[in-house]
């Protein structure tokens, strides 16, 4: 074995040994079980109108904030989206504070004009997109009331 081969073998071997503990730990961890669909559905429904229920459920199941309920036919909805299309700013803002994934529809309902306009200027076809239950950006601007009035007229 020449000097170059020796060093290459040492480097590759060292990398393999340094990764071995990480690979072993990754394989030994149990796969988490999926969240029960009944709990996800209950949380998403609460997101439409019930801040106390949302808080209670998040306390018991913190990862609910990232879940979506499948209403069927490709109509998936997160709790924050329910708050968005019902105009429930209190629930939407709470979920955002807790780390929920915000989207253009919720931002429209909340009247975040600068953010929404900048997204639509960059991607104009998003004006045609539909959120949960097929509801449009215009619906979210209308349900947002005074705060989203400028977006309502913009859209």
Going across the major beta sheet, what is the strand order?
1-2
**Percentage of residues in strands:** under 5%
Order of helices and strands: HHHEEHHHHHH
Low-confidence stretches: none
Q: State the helicity in percent bands.
A: 55-70%
Radius of gyration: 23 Å
Tally of contiguous helical segments: 9
Compute the average pLDDT.
89
N- to C-terminal separation? 71 Å
Bulk shape: globular
Structural class: mainly alpha
Characterize the main sheet: 2 strands, antiparallel
In total, the number of strands is 2
What does the model show?
With 155 residues, this protein is mostly helical. Helix content is 61%, strand content 3%. It is built from nine helices and two strands; from the N terminus they run αααββαααααα. The chain has a two-stranded antiparallel ribbon with strand order 1-2. Helix 2 packs antiparallel against helix 3 and helix 4 runs antiparallel to helix 5. It starts with a helix and ends with a helix. 28% of the residues are buried.
Give the tags:
155 residues; 9 helices; 2 strands; 61% helix
Characterize this entry briefly:
The protein has helices at 3-28, 37-49, 51-60, 79-86, 89-97, 104-109, 113-122, 137-143, 149-154, and strands at residues 69-70, 76-77.
Describe the SSE topology.
Elements: H1 3-28, H2 37-49, H3 51-60, E1 69-70, E2 76-77, H4 79-86, H5 89-97, H6 104-109, H7 113-122, H8 137-143, H9 149-154
Antiparallel strand pairs: 1-2
